[in-house]
Amino acid sequence: MSHLYITSPKHCAKQGFNLNKSYKKLFYAFSTFIFSILSFVLLIWIILHPSKPQFYLKEADLYQLNLSSPYYLLNSSIQATLSSKNPNSKVGVYYDSVRAYVSYKGQRITNDLSLPPFYQGNGDTNILSASLYGYDLPVTPTFGYEVSRDQSDGELQLVLKLDGRLRWKVGTWVSGYYRFDVYCVAVVGLKASMDTSGPFRSLQGAQCSTTV
After folding, report:
1. Long-range contacts of range 141-149, CB-CB < 8 Å, 24 or more positions apart?
2. Which end of the chain is less packed: N or C, by CB atoms within 10 Å?
3. Which pLDDT tens digit goes with each residue over 7-38?
4. Is 127 in contact with 83 (CB distance < 8 Å)?
5. What are 153-179's pLDDT values in tens digits?
6. Cα(125)–Cα(101) distance, rounded to whole angstroms?
């Protein structure tokens, strides 16, 4: 006759096997691992939390701003120079799909210009130059009046806008894409007639606002 052996909990305890202790050890080990990972991520975020790039409009030259009548079509030519700085000491920046254009009173007065992608190392500063043109761009009937009024004041306020995508680089790690927008105001001095040959130069440089 065969014998059936049933091990009781008391017998297991005598053999040194404790189920509750094994689960506790596993739980503590898993909790310690998760806590270490979270602490490491938090530490990296605190140390390397990237500051957004800084843009400064150094100069804007207005060469042409002619309005045809009666069709309200605009031709323009503007040369802009900006400096771009990466303020981070441990984070590099890749710039992708960057485009620029100029607007006046909420109306675009140049076509989009695509700038070549570039990389900006830790603390580096780059100079960006953009030649922006507009050919037969439709504007509102009040455009000529707005320009004439600003001409009488001797100043024309233009807005240079940049947008695109950037990626952060830490060591060999590169982040995903983040959208950024840059907004620069250029105050350009004008002569008596808008149709005279330029250039009309911006009266001063301007710090640009940047959002990421």
Report:
1. 141/72, 143/67, 143/72, 143/74, 143/104, 143/105, 143/107, 144/67, 144/69, 144/72, 146/104, 146/105, 147/65, 147/67, 147/104, 147/194, 148/194
2. N
3. 555 555 555 555 566 677 777 777 788 877 77
4. yes
5. 888 899 999 999 999 998 888 888 999
6. 22
Q: Report how far residue 35's alpha carbon sits from residue 39's, in angstroms, rounded to the nearest whole number.
A: 6
Tokens at residue 176, please?
A: 């995903």
